[in-house]
Amino acid sequence: MEENYMTLSPAGMVEKLKELIQAGDAHREITDLKNSFYKKMSQLQEEARRNHTGEEEIVWETPQEELEVKALMEGYRAQRAKQLKLQEAMQERALAIKQDIVNQLTALVEQSDEVDKTFPLVRELQMRWKDAGQVAPDKYGPLVKAYQTNLEKYYDFVKISNELRDLDLRKNLEAKTALCEAAEALLKEKQVTVASQKLQQLHAEWKEIGPVARDRREELWQRFKQTSDIINHQRAAFDEERKAQEKQNLELKTKLCEAIESLDYEHVTDRRQWEALSEKVLELQAEWKKIGFAPKKDNDRIYQRFRSRCDLLFAARAAFYKESRAVFADNLARKKALCEEAESLSGSTDWKATADRLVKLQQEWRNIGPVSRKASDAVWNRFKAACDTFFQARQAAMNSPEKKQQDHQRSDLEKLVRKAEALKQDILTRENNLGFFRGTGKKPNPLFEQMAAQVEQQKQQLADLQAKISTLRKELNHA
After folding, report:
1. Domains of the chain: which residue ranges?
2. Which of 34, 8, 9 is nearest to 21 (CA)?
3. Staple partner for 445: which of 35, 67, 132, 439, CB 3.0–4.6 Å?
4. Does the predicted TM-score (pTM) go above 0.85?
5. What is the distance between the alpha carbons of residues 226 and 223, in angstroms, rounded to a whole number?
6. What is the Cα–Cα distance from 20 to 75, expressed in whole angstroms?
């Protein structure tokens, strides 16, 4: 029955619960529907948690339907308590009446020779028995047995007139034959539990009907009993199969408990690991939903074991994300500070010093941990834009005609400097060697004069080079 109710929406379950409570005498259905409703609520919560993609933990507010169910069940329990108390009082009253009827029947059996007087009294007692109502199940067996024994004694041993006896026996035969047919019709019932419940009602009616003719009594009972045995056998087989399935379900759920308890959440250190762990928990929850009920005595216990571990894992995950948000906030503040410095440097034309500083800022950026996903792209794009602005401006400056001219002038300057240094060295060497060609007499040495003239010429060349070098340096310094 619970599977049928699970197809209803929560609002539909509330309306169905109202109908059952209003109809009354549907305690089993009401209990099944209540259990199905809370199972449905649990499924909706788990589905919401599984589909939740945000960082904040879901805060589940009690739905209106759940409040209605609680109110309805509270009223129903109060109403049922009154009904049970009233039923108990009525059963006690019925017990007193039927005990009195049995006592009167016992006395009438002893007056078997006064048929004309006793038979109407017996019929009246039978009517009173039917109208007295039900007694408590634990007291019903001995009472109805005494009632039937007295009736059978009366019909078997009292010298009743054939006309009255046959009329009563025929009515009883018709009633019990109808019960046999009703029981046989139950063989077509697809739901074994429904057939079993209805059969119990037929047996209660059978016990209330008086005897039939002795020659038909055993035949009719065997017909009714044969059908009852088939249905009871089907119910026993159903119960055994259900117990076996529930036992297997308990084993499967125990394995899922062991699996979820083996998940190590204490050493999870980052979001990716938590996402993988959460996905595993959701997979185990999905497997749990595919498994039916465990035995009644174990069902709540095994569910609480599994559920408590799920709650522990999700609570740990929530604590991790709460702590992560504080770390993310600190990382975001540090990265914003780098953005502000990069933006202040983005317009600088001190190409080398600024480039070195921005490279250092980029290294610092990489050493800072992550920020929240919703802020990650924005703060990175801001930092990257500031860096790109500077480096693109520097690249443009490097490719300008003025830069190329400056590079050419620097190249020329370097060549002139190298040439001047080489000329200085050559002059120094020649001056050192002039002493060997000066001579000792008054007559001048032509080779000395030639080399001295060359030294003077080189010094003039060096002066010209130094003038050019000075000019180029001035131009570059004013560029």
Report:
1. 161-252, 263-399, 403-477
2. 34
3. 439
4. no
5. 5
6. 13
